[in-house]
Amino acid sequence: MGIDSKSWAEKFVAELTVEGERVPFERVLAHHLDDIAKLRAASGLTWRSLASLLARAGARRADGGLISADQLRVGYARLVRQAEKTSQHDNPQGGN
Q: Could you read off the pLDDT of 70-83 as tens digits, one per residue?
């Protein structure tokens, strides 16, 4: 069974604060990389659709604005690249 998009968005929003303190957006996003990939692959949701789900669940930036599709897409891409670099560094293939 796939991930329920509404439940995912609500969980994401809940993780944006801890005891009233803001958690950086990309830190929360990093915990959701796999779920986002699964949601996009299984349901065909676009970045705009994911941003919309987050907005309906109450997600906001630290300045109170909405999390945009571009912010979500760019943050996701940056974190995936970082994970790939870390993975390549930790597990070099071929060696010299």
A: 999 999 999 999 98
Strands (E), the chain: 17-18, 21-22
Cβ within 8 Å of residue 38, ≥6 positions away: 2, 3
**CA dist., res. 19 & res. 65, Å (int):** 21
Q: Is the pTM of this model over 0.70?
A: yes
The tokens for 27 are 């830190």
Provide the residue ranges of all domains of the chain, joining segments of one domain with +: 5-84
Q: What is the distance between the alpha carbons of residues 31 and 34, in angstroms, rounded to a whole number? A: 8
Q: How far apart, in Å, are the Cα atoms of 12 and each of 16, 41, 68?
A: 7, 18, 15
